[in-house]
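Convert to structure. Protein one:
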Amino acid sequence: MAFLGGKGSLSALQQYMVVTGAYWAFTLSDGALRMLVVFHFHQLGYSTLEIAGLFLFYEFFGILTNLYGGWLGARFGLRLTLWAGMALQIGALLVLVPVSASWPKLVSVVYVMAAQAISGIAKDLSKMSAKSAIKTVVASSQAPSPGEGGGTKGEHQLFQWVAVLTGSKNALKGLGFFAGGLLLAAFGFGGSVAILAALLAVALLATINLPADIGKMKQKPAFTELFCKSEAINRLSVARFFLFGARDVWFVVALPVFLEAVLGWHFWEVGGFMGLWVIGYGMVQASAPSLRRSWGQTAPPGPGAVQFWSALLTAIPALIAIALWRQVGHPGVAIVVGLTAFAIVFAMNSSIHSYLILAYTDADSVSLNVGFYYMANAGGRLLGTLLSGWVYLHGGMQACLWVSALLVGLSWLSSLRLPPLAGATQIGLPGLQA
């Protein structure tokens, strides 16, 4: 195989394929691990708030990792941060192998939270590395010729490649949810995490030939450059914070517990539904450029697209909450249909977000800016995770959905002052149009 021990430098397309493949493997393990933890500890009688607490360090350390990981990637290269992320995830999985139902609750909680902290660091190192690498790869192969419908060929390629990576990643995460449920039923908790660790170790070997300097800044960034000074990226980061808080406030703990405890679904059915939801969400993300072209939108998207999709998304969780409150039909139908609509609109919004963060920055400082942006993303997930357990415990699924609508509304408000791409920031790509 060319990627394993072959001589010579990899082409831009080969680098993209290696990074994407590694990120796929990581995402599969991450999705499966999340579902394993939720189901295993729910079976042991943990409350939704206690289960949410198990992910506290996962999200908290993700915030720190995105901030410092971007600086590390800019200083030492993205290959190193990708390797570190995958190796840490293997370690986190292996640490969880001996977890037993016979352990005292306090010991289990502290132990799993520590393992989840390692996994949170691993997840965001890998994500920052993979998404930053795309900008570097596209920049190295950018053609100056104009693309169809406005924007350069490189800008269209950037939107397409970002959409494919982000969408396929989420599809694999959904498959991971489904795999987590099946693994738990077939092999138990310890056996399942051991299998995931072995599969991820194979994927790590496939990254051995990535260039050592991919993503490395020509001038070593100072530690004081951790915080982004771009108005566009700061505003987009705030919008991202609220957007992902709005998703996780019902998705992380409230939804699987609601489906199992209230609607009486089996674990494999819950895992299957959540897996299909994320797979469908990922497919829409990957298809975002094609969908926009089918609607006559041939130019790369600008801030107005984020504002439109955020405004539309605000109404969906509110309508689901009203349907549950008014008992319109079976609650399972309201949840499935409503969350399908949420997935489609959220996917379009998230895909454009992922493009804009790269369009607002340049290849040299991409890991710093992407790290800062995904720090906000991790912060939103942390907020949503904590609220998912607490709000569901005190108000049920309806309350989680109302909070989701509120957070999406705040994301929309945050996006209203996003500057146009052309001239939005001194380090932006020249020639981008809104």
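Protein two, convert as well:
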Amino acid sequence: MFDHDNELALLKRALDVLDEGFAHLPQHQAGVDVEAAWPVLEQLARCMRDNYPYFHPQYAGQMLKPPHPVARIAYALALWINPNNHALDGGRASSALEKECVSALGAMFGWDHPLGHLTGGGTMANMEALWVSGRLRPGKKILASDQAHYTHGRISEVLQLPFSAVAADASGRMDLEDLERQLGHGDVGTVVVTLGTTGLGTVDPLADILAMQQRHDFRIHVDAAYGGYFVLCDGLGEEARRHFDSMHQVDSIVIDPHKHGLQPYGCGCVLFRDREVARIYLHESPYTYYSSDELHLGEISLECSRAGAAATALWATQQLLPMARGGRFAGDLDRCLAAATELYRLLAQSSQFHPLYQPELDILVYAVAADDTRDASQRAARLFDRAAENELHLALIDLPTSLVHDRLGDMEINSETVTCLRSVLMKSEQVDWTRRIFELLCRCADAG
């Protein structure tokens, strides 16, 4: 399952090169007590078996994508130094690498030199973006689709800013009529546009929302934590392509390299088009910023200590797999799209399932066929358990029947929600496993 020998050999070679850079120092070595450490590590390895096989193609549940081997190796290599990217004093090399990474991520969206930095994850990145918005639009409301990530409401509460949800339309995207109505009140400071929702994988109509800025004064923040890398794909549908191609016009963007960027947790990123928002972060810290007149990453971040290892892993991956359309990295993302599209096709031809939405990205949601929605929910829960027993790992999602009633065929609506199955096909190799995944689904459904 794991290519231990090659990865460890590469790590050893890289560590030897690293060690040479400090050979001029007086001899010092902090060794490890092998006899004492091994029982602990053996126990830990056995403990870690109590996980789902997130790395395997038959894991199609949550957004868990294995890191690229070079990311694992680079992260481990950095741990021998353990840099802190808060200040240049704590992470000189890794801070420089982080700035390169941020510039490359910005270029992916058409920004030459954005302000930005890595974060511990998408939640913190979104908080920073909305904090900046709140400072620029004090007291103004934040809007997000009711299919957006639930943290936007929580973040707004933490920031003590009013928040309202915008209804989703029949396609699971932000409803433009409801958005226009709420913007008409004149109290909205920021609209959060999600380019791929984590529940349904849908793409909010960014290009149309940008047009609304001509009539209303508000900032646009794009939460692309999950979907941002799909901007590189050739396989996007025409409508999704139109919205991804509009990203360069927004005020801020969040993307999570630890989702589709092949990185270990945690690695998020927040980007601002206008570098002048750096003034909002200004603060005094006389004991951490003394070794350089350059901008320290901690001066444009709400977080303080951050693992420089995250930057080194991302930089190494971006060097090996440049983020360019038509390249290998983009091609692997297109394979994810193809896997979701193929599984949708197979499910749509089956009498046992009702796929709800043609996938725009690589998330697929489908109901189990039944006479009514209550029975469909019960069948979905049983199938979820039975699939796990057969080493096919899925996820469940509860959806309002008011949102999906016209996608359930002749099924009677006798409940307010319906539990559906949800699959995230974010491993490129899953394109070769869709037939097997489908057959396992059908076998589990046949079992009742």
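Residues 92-320 form a domain with the Aspartate Aminotransferase; domain 2 fold (CATH 3.40.640.10). Confidence is low (pLDDT under 50) at residues 286-293.
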